[in-house]
């Protein structure tokens, strides 16, 4: 039975987390249309807001405002722009107080500023209680050599009844607890600003994930959602990207003014086309 497929609207589930009860879509937030009247500032205190403002609009931004957020100054006429909702990353792990999971959540916590810079909200899940999560996050902070009083940078869902794990297809039938009940696998879902599933990864309990790779795929997803390009194997941000095969040659030349390089191949087919990252 297929679980969640790419392009599906991610379920708007309710859950208890270490930061209180959430409804998932509200947790990610909604895109909002904002208006700025000419000659005035509009202030938004959302952390790391992402704003769609066409380049030709006349405006000034101040991202150094106290308390984070952004202030936008409009010089000319009434301007409208959309304050975009967050991307989301939901990742499950088998169990609290286990070694691989501790290294994974420690690494994810260390990278939380990187996810935040990309406007991605993080949330973890396992089939343990809130009390376990709260105790275990102190160990994770100690593993990271951080002060025990520090706040953990993202919430953890307490799915001790396994309801979400079942609904989202996260259980690993090969890993069982002492009562013979299956544990959660190492699942990653990346959810776009349209609340649709953009990527899923499923690792068994015995293999820890590479969070640098997860950041890299977020960079690729965010680039390819905005530009008609694809990223090749092992691509890193800033490196050249590929022109997708469904763009005809003439259109590609107009679409990528920085140039398109086509690699000669024995088949003489012109499908291996590169362009600098837009
Ligand atoms: C771990 O996180 O170390 C782990 C959890 C369940 C099975 C195997 C390893």
TrEMBL record:
Q: Where is the Thioredoxin domain?
A: 4-223
| A single GO BP | cell redox homeostasis
Keyword Ligase carried by entry: no
* Xref: InterPro entries: AhpC/TSA, Peroxiredoxin_AhpC-typ, Peroxiredoxin_C, PRX_1cys, Thioredoxin-like_sf, Thioredoxin_domain
For this protein, the record's Pfam families field holds: 1-cysPrx_C, AhpC-TSA
Which PROSITE patterns does the entry mention? THIOREDOXIN_2
Q: Identify the SUPFAM superfamilies for this entry.
A: Thioredoxin-like
Active site positions: 101 (cysteine sulfenic acid (-soh) intermediate)
Q: Does the keyword Ribonucleoprotein apply?
A: no
Q: Which reaction does it catalyse?
A: 1,2-dihexadecanoyl-sn-glycero-3-phosphocholine + H2O = 1-hexadecanoyl-sn-glycero-3-phosphocholine + hexadecanoate + H(+); a 1,2-diacyl-sn-glycero-3-phosphocholine + H2O = a 1-acyl-sn-glycero-3-phosphocholine + a fatty acid + H(+); a hydroperoxide + 2 glutathione = an alcohol + glutathione disulfide + H2O; 1-hexadecanoyl-sn-glycero-3-phosphocholine + hexadecanoyl-CoA = 1,2-dihexadecanoyl-sn-glycero-3-phosphocholine + CoA
Which segment of the chain is annotated as a signal peptide?
Answer: none
Keywords annotated in UniProt: Antioxidant, Multifunctional enzyme, Oxidoreductase, Peroxidase, Redox-active center
GO MF term list:
1-acylglycerophosphocholine O-acyltransferase activity; peroxiredoxin activity; phospholipase A2 activity
Any one Gene Ontology cellular component term annotated for this protein: mitochondrion
Q: Could you tell me which PANTHER family the record lists for this protein?
A: MCG48959-RELATED, PEROXIREDOXIN-6
Q: What does the sequence similarity comment in the record state about its family?
A: Belongs to the peroxiredoxin family. Prx6 subfamily.
Q: What is this protein called?
A: Peroxiredoxin-6
Q: Which organism is it from?
A: Hucho hucho (huchen)
């Amino acid at each position: 039975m297929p679980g969640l497929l790419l392009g599906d609207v991610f379920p708007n589930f309710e859950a208890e987390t270490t930061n209180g009860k959430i409804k998932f879509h509200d947790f990610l937030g909604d895109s909002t249309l904002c208006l700025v009247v000419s000659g005035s500032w509009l202030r938004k205190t959302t952390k790391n807001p992402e704003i769609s403002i066409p380049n030709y609009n006349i405006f000034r931004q101040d991202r150094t405002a106290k308390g984070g957020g952004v202030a936008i100054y409009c010089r000319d006429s009434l301007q409208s722009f959309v304050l975009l909702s967050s991307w989301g990353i939901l990742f499950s792990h088998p169990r609290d107080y286990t070694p691989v999971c501790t290294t994974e959540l420690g690494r994810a916590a260390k990278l939380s500023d990187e996810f935040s810079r990309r406007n991605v909200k993080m949330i973890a899940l396992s089939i343990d209680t809130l009390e376990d999560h709260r105790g275990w996050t102190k160990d994770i902070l100690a593993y990271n050599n951080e002060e025990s009083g520090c706040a953990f940078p993202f919430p953890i869902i307490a799915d001790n009844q396994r309801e979400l794990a079942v609904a989202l297809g996260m259980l690993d039938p090969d890993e069982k607890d002492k009562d013979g009940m299956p544990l959660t696998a190492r699942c990653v879902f990346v959810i776009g600003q349209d609340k649709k599933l953009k990527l899923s990864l499923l690792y068994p309990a015995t293999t820890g994930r590479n969070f640098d790779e997860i950041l890299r795929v977020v960079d690729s997803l965010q680039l390819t959602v905005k530009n008609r390009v694809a990223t090749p194997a092992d691509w890193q941000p800033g490196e050249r990207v590929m022109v997708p095969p469904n763009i005809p040659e003439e259109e590609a030349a107009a679409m990528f003014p920085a140039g398109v390089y086509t690699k000669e191949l024995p088949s003489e087919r012109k499908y291996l086309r590169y362009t600098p990252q837009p």
